[in-house]
Each structure stands twice: as structure tokens, then as C-alpha cells.
């Protein structure tokens, strides 16, 4: 049975930067949860950031650039929180490996979990194509990452998994 790493906020847990959750109401998520297939994560909490916390964005690139040391993650306050994001990404990867997750369902636009788009680093609300730190690290290690609005694609991928 395929296991799925999932952003904890998508299960309604109040772990987002603003202290809220963003529950993904879908019967498949409920079924996978009941089957014990979901492994919830919040990489920012795993990196020991508090809830609530200032919003953060990747400045100078995308998640893969942060992993390569070419970009940073800054909070809206100007604080460099790159180290916390890197720690959270490593913990998320370790958890995915130790629990046998070969798929991940992550909230898009997040500097950690975004897989299709992230904010552009100007705190202006502008989005750009790209992945967050966790999504980039998971993908680099062969874990198939899906955005929250790609649940149909994830369900299809799981149906065709061993």
C-alpha cells in the first residue's frame, strides 16, 4: 500500500504561518486517512519555527536554489530563516523515507511545500513558477510531489503504483 506524505495544514491542522489550517475536503483524503496511508508533516514546524510566524518567501530563486545555497528564505520581517527551512526539509525527507512514502500531497505556493508555484520573494503577492524547499528536495530524491489542487493526478498515480 502506497503511503502519502501530506501537508498537515491540508488535514485542517492549524500550523500555517498565520495559525490556521487549510483543510482539503475530498473524500479520497478522508479514505486515505482512514486507511492509515497519510503521513502528515509541517516542515516549518519541523524546522522549529513557531505558530504563528511571519510569512516567508524565497528570495533569489526557488527551492532548488535554496538547497544549492544560491537563494535564501526570508521572513517578512527581514529575518533569514533559511536554516530552519533546510532543517525542516531534511526531516521531511527522512520521515518520507522511514515511512515508505513515494508520493507527497503538498500545499502549493508555500516556500516549503509549493510544487508548481511559489511567491516571488517581494512580499507583493506575485507568484512565479517554481517549487519550495521541501518539494524540491523530495522530488530530487524520487518522491512524486503533487500540489493540493492536483489530487486527481495523485489518485491516478497511486492507482497505478505497486
Poorly predicted residue ranges: none
- How many helical stretches? 6
Portion of residues within helices: 25-40%
The Rg value, from CA coordinates, equals: 15 Å
Count all strands and give the number: 8
| Average of pLDDT | 97
Sheet having the most strands: 4 strands, parallel
Strand order of the largest sheet: 2-1-5-8
Helix/strand order, N-terminal first: EHEHEHEHEEEHEH
The gross shape turns out to be globular
What does this structure look like?
This protein has one domain. The chain has helices spanning 27-34, 43-46, 63-67, 82-99, 133-140, 151-159, and strands spanning 3-7, 38-41, 56-59, 72-75, 101-106, 117-119, 127-129, 144-147. Helix 4 crosses helix 5 (133-140). The protein is globular and about 45 Å long. With 162 residues, the protein is of the alpha/beta class. A hairpin with a 7-residue loop joins strand 6 (117-119) and strand 7. 44% of the residues are buried. The strands form three sheets. A four-stranded parallel β-sheet has the order 2-1-5-8, sandwiched between helices. The longest helix is centred in the middle third of the chain and has 18 residues, at 82-99. The chain is built from six helices and eight strands.
